[in-house]
Amino acid sequence: RLDQLTEVKLERMLYPKPETLKPPRTDVLTITPWLAPIVWNGTYNIDVLNAQFHKRGVRVGLTIFAIKKYTVFVQTFVETAEKFFMVGHKVNYYVFTDRPNDIPNITLAEGRQLVVLIVPSYQRWQEVSMRRMEMIRDFSSQRFINEVDYLVCVDVDMRFSDEVGVEILSDVFGTLHPGFYGAGRQGFTYERRPESQAFIPGDEGDFYYAGGYFGGTIEEVYKLTNFCHNAMMTDRENKLEAVWHDESYLNKYFLYHKPTKILSVEYLWDNGFGVPDILKRRRFVAVPKNHNAIRNK
Ligand code: 2GW
Ligand code: MN
Fold first, then answer.
1. Which fold would CATH assign to domain 34-286?
2. Distance between the two ends of the chain, CA-based, in angstroms?
């Protein structure tokens, strides 16, 4: 085995040296107590990372769900991803939908393809959101494992507005929720009923992670989605559903399976929160939606 390892050796590159005594960011936390990076603008050199990931020929799968009326979000999502998401790398868009005829035909750059996966739709919107875990799990073992190295799993009601590249990739990563990055534990909207599989006690928890942005290697995403789906099913047998659905189970998973990288709120922002000083780039932003028109249809 050792003789079959492929060497990933960089070429000569010119760039400013990292300064041990001048940290690029002093206004935000850039590393967790378990030594996982928290990715903020200024903390990484994308040229070095791109050189590494290009040598490895990395393939990235981007999963989105467009069930019922949420197909309206696909065009903007994919068009903006073509401009900003993993430009220059191999990308497969995986669009899970119950309405394949409503998925637009979009011209993609070389090395990128869009795969439509037909899946059932569920009546309750909470279930539409939660069942993503089961479907990502099942397609991970049946398909994604043969086609891509990493998965990035996000909400579809979003647009890219700045670069999102290989700096996000790691074995298993989560993203800070834009509504809670400054909050204390008591402010986190974890599931607080001890009977639920998603329960987190008031004196535990590191961050409040967003349900709409996680990823990692196929193996790690399989483990994560399998845990979340099984926990949901156990709760259902006990007539329970966690307060924030899939997001609550994801937060429980990350409490005891620490992410190896965390994306800052640059990677998941909502302009309803304004633009704080710490936010140097808004890379992926919520598309405002008319809740009544689009929901429960
Ligand atoms: C969702 C809510 C109400 C009515 C419909 C839907 C809906 C969601 C739908 O009809 N079709 C559909 O494909 N979805 C998918 O579920 C879609 O991919 C969408 O992005 C995702 C989550 O729903 P969304 O974006 O409307 O909910 P948010 O933005 O409040 O999401 C946060 O909270 C959710 C749990 O309540 C999830 O954890 C989500 O990941 C979070 O970002
Ligand atoms: Mn959303």
1. Spore Coat Polysaccharide Biosynthesis Protein SpsA; Chain A (3.90.550)
2. 54
